[in-house]
Design a protein that fits this description.
Structural class: mainly beta
Number of helices: 12
Helix content: 10-25%
Oligomer: single chain
Low-confidence stretches: 155-185, 286-333, 468-473
């Protein structure tokens, strides 16, 4: 970044970085002043929805105008960088000053007064800081205090959870959060109501102010610990120690701190203005004698009782331990929080054996998130990597790029090739002895289990799979047991499967229990999913036998029974991470003014809605939670009657009607031999249109004559590109193949233009292009866009804009063949956290929207610390 020019800003040097971006000293070449440029992290900048939300929040925050608040000057939205333009504040942070030792009273009170004045000004505008901490306070050389990052924790959140963290970053989320499931703040400074996931108001800032003031006077953190859980435990139950303040601390300042640090918000000071007034008095009077407080605040005593009877649903601890004042053992607490998915395409994370890290397979590379860090980071050298799995010590990750097995250290450095892999779809598990067991599926010639012995450089096949199904055999997904010899695996037969024990030294197997998915051993139990419920059953790894009855741990776990995949992962230390099954949705009709005019079908799990050209039928995919698959259905719109088109162990999706309404083209979402199909709309056996070639194909639309289909094709080299295939011959060729992603292609009713989405200019935008030759190209959207839909006469194009707007663009044919395009016009808005897809009636007067529960489109991943507290077996 150093030396680059972003808009009118020339980057001079780096000032720092944190969970909400990197900050650079820059020069405004127009106004000839230095500014701070906060470059947003990829999780915000690359997500159109989060970016739009951040921009809206930044507009509100820019309205703050106070001498103790660092100003926001603007928002720079270049093609390559998204950044906040902020006032450059010289001087150290308050954290730097505290790092040199306690701050004397005559210096601390003026600093505290200015922080209170900043909070007072923000609260008057209805803005809560949510992340007040010493690192967000600057003290200029002249003594002026500037509070930074007002509300940016809220602004950077994806309308859902904020990433987890420790004392120096935005922290964890819980199921009952402040805003659509959000906890915002930093663990050491968050209020008890934030830690419990309850709604917060300005009193949360008052608590944080009290914690910061205490730290200024003592030089040490009021609430500390070795882990996030330890810190939160201290926040929720540790007596507030104002007795540790310096001896010369006035009694009224001690009282003020106690009133700021009441755990019950009702007992806490309600307005920061009262705090500021008290500090004003203290600044003018220092003759009070110092006294030692007699006892903790009343709410601290009540907090002990509250924890003893349930800890507000966060954990369960011993009454005796609480009342004796002893800190509960970490294993006595069950704690839940959530972390956001790093984008819509990321597979569920796999947790490390020590419970400290999550690794994500995004489909294009691996991401690593420490549970005490705000954002995941890209693991260098893992492009094209998939199916990650952990080494027993949690320091390395195995993964499969192309035809190789590699390992990469989480400490950094280039990946190491361990062995070549036969073509197919591999998964792996790493034993305590250092051996790696690899399963290869989706290759009839080489399917089976392979073993990489410690120190070896090639795999040896230990078992071949019998191909007892006409299509790909389902995955067994082995997982090693502690002895390093035996492993758990799922033996699927059709839609019925059994969890079994195998051995790398023999072909002998032992059936354990019916299960829909793979199994995992942890904490003396085998865990597996059956009918969407996660079960745990005691298991003796020495005798390889189960004991007792299975105990339900959690309901609604996302899983795929045909493939044996279960979206949960568990560590040795008792931490469980999982993903809920997706939320249901409703199909609702809206007019151009956004008025709801009716509904279609009952509530279900609906995807990929597309109306036929005449508007009389709807094609869609419907997920069956019992089988965890998706099938193609059609609906008679007038009669509201659904008809199943496909029923298979595969997941089928994105159906598109042919112009005459007699055929459907659709694809699958897991790599079977074929990938793009055509079927009769009334049912029957589908036929392969585009064979599987280790890429993913997603149909976009038909040409008006019904002779061809345009589709997007995902490759590891180019990402998503647009291709066209001849329906009769199967011949196919690229239409648009670039280093950027292009998807959702749809041909205009006159057959001359192609509308599609692309990230060529940064976020997803809608483009229009000459078809089929590509002689010209125009960008249509101006604020982001996806899901282009044509009106049947071709005179209007609709798309969805981040933030929830359904947008219209008028299109007229031009004399040169290049159409005349109007400015985009938003028709109406919906809650974008609920929006899944939409389709347009032929006349463009009605819109069928697929709306899910708030936050349901990209739900967070859930984490439970000490999950064994959930079972009583």
């Amino acid at each position: 970044m150093i030396g680059k020019t972003i808009g009118p800003y020339e980057v001079i040097g780096k000032l720092g970085e944190g969970g909400m971006g990197e900050v650079y000293r820059s020069t405004d070449t127009k106004l000839k002043r230095d500014i701070a440029l906060k470059v947003l992290p990829p999780s915000v900048a690359a997500d159109p929805d989060r970016l739009a939300r951040f921009r809206r929040e930044a507009e509100v925050l820019a309205s703050l105008n106070h001498p103790n608040i660092a100003a926001i000057y603007g928002f720079e939205d270049s093609t390559s960088v998204k950044a906040l333009v902020m006032e450059l504040v010289e001087g150290p942070t308050l954290a730097d000053r505290i790092g040199r030792g306690p701050i004397p009273l005559d210096e601390a009170v003026p600093i505290a007064r200015q922080i209170a004045q900043a909070l007072e000004a923000a609260h008057e505008r209805g803005i809560i800081h949510r992340d007040l901490k010493p690192a967000n306070v600057k003290v200029r050389p002249d003594g002026t205090v500037k509070v930074l990052d007002f509300g940016l924790a809220k602004a950077s959140a994806p309308g859902g959870p904020t990433p987890p963290g420790t004392s120096d970053s935005p922290t964890i989320t819980t199921p009952a959060m402040t805003e659509a499931g959000v906890i915002l703040g930093t663990a050491s400074y968050m209020s008890p109501e934030q830690a419990r996931g309850k709604p917060v108001d300005k009193r949360a800032d008052i608590w944080a102010f009290g914690v910061v003031l205490s730290e200024m006077l003592t030089g040490r953190r009021l609430f500390a610990g070795d882990s996030t859980l330890d810190v939160l435990t201290a926040v929720l139950r540790q007596p507030v120690d104002v007795a540790g303040l310096p001896a010369d601390t006035p009694a009224r300042l001690r009282r003020l701190l106690r009133r700021c640090l009441e755990r019950d918000p009702k007992e806490r000071l309600h307005d920061i203005a009262d705090v500021r007034l008290e500090l004003d008095d203290l600044a003018g009077s220092s003759d009070e004698s110092a006294v030692t407080p007699a006892e903790p605040p009343r709410s601290n005593r009540m907090a002990m009782v509250g924890w003893a009877v349930g800890l507000a649903g966060i954990g369960v601890v011993s009454v005796a331990a609480l009342l004796s004042g002893r800190a509960p053992a970490a294993t006595a607490v069950e704690y839940r929080f959530t972390v956001p998915q790093p984008g819509t395409g990321a597979n569920p994370p796999v947790i490390s054996p020590d419970g400290r890290h999550l690794v994500y397979d995004t489909g294009s590379r691996l991401l690593l998130r420490a549970l005490d860090e705000a954002e995941p980071r890209r693991i260098d050298g893992t492009d094209g990597g998939r199916e990650p799995f952990w080494s027993p010590d949690g320091q390395s990750i195995g993964f499969f790029p192309d035809a190789e097995l590699k390992r990469v250290s989480i400490a950094g450095g280039p990946p190491e090739v361990l062995a070549p892999i036969t073509q197919g779809w591999p998964t792996g598990t790493w034993s305590s002895t250092g051996a790696i067991l690899v399963e290869v599926t989706e290759n009839p010639e080489n399917e089976g289990w392979y073993l990489l012995d410690p120190g070896a450089t090639s795999l040896r096949k230990i078992k071949a799979f019998a191909r007892d199904r006409p299509i790909n055999p389902d995955k067994a997904l082995p997982s090693f047991l502690p002895d390093g010899e035996h492993f758990l695996f799922t033996h699927p037969v059709g839609t019925v499967a059994t969890l079994q024990v195998g051995s790398i030294r023999s072909d002998e197997t032992r059936a354990l229990v019916p299960a829909d998915t793979r199994g995992t051993y942890a904490a003396g139990h085998v865990l597996y999913v059956r009918d969407g419920t996660l079960f745990a059953q005691r298991f003796d790894p020495a005798s390889l036998t189960l004991a007792g009855d299975p105990v339900a741990v959690l309901d609604d776990i996302d899983y795929f029974s045909p493939t044996g995949e279960a979206h949960f992962s568990v560590s040795r230390d008792g931490t469980l991470v999982y993903r809920h099954t997706e939320a249901g949705s409703d199909l609702r009709w809206f007019d151009r003014e956004g008025r709801e005019t009716g509904r279609l079908l009952d509530r279900g799990i609906y995807h990929d809605t597309r109306l036929s050209d005449d508007g009389t039928r709807l094609a869609l995919s419907i997920r069956d939670p019992r089988r965890s698959t998706r099938d193609i259905w059609t609906v008679d719109v007038e009669r509201n009657v659904p008809t199943r088109v496909t029923s298979s162990p595969r997941t089928e999706m994105r159906p598109v009607y042919s112009p005459d309404g007699r055929r459907l083209v659709f694809s699958t979402d897991w790599e079977g031999p074929p990938n793009l199909y055509i079927a009769d709309a009334s049912g029957g056996q589908p036929r392969v249109l585009v064979p599987f070639d280790r890429t993913q194909q997603f149909p976009g639309g038909w040409t008006p004559d019904g002779a061809s289909v345009v589709y997007s094709k995902r490759t590891e080299t180019f990402g998503l590109d647009i291709w066209v295939v001849d329906v009769l011959t199967g011949n196919r060729r690229p239409v648009l193949e670039t280093v950027f992603n292009e998807w959702q292609p749809t041909v205009s009713p006159n057959g001359r233009w192609l509308a599609y989405a692309s990230n060529a200019s940064g976020p997803s935008e809608i483009y229009l292009r000459d078809f089929p030759d590509g002689g010209w190209e125009d960008r249509i959207s101006v604020g982001g866009g996806s899901m282009p839909n044509w009106r049947r006469d071709g005179r209007e194009l609709f798309y969805y804009e981040p933030g929830g707007a359904v947008v219209s663009v008028a299109i007229e044919a031009g004399s040169t063949g290049r159409p005349r395009v109007s400015r985009p016009t938003p028709l109406f808005t919906v809650d974008d956290s609920r929006f899944r897809s939409f389709t347009v009636a032929p006349d463009g007067q009605r819109f069928l929207l697929n709306l899910t529960d708030a936050g349901g489109l990209v739900p967070p991943d859930s984490v439970i610390v000490n999950w064994t507290r959930l079972i009583r077996d």
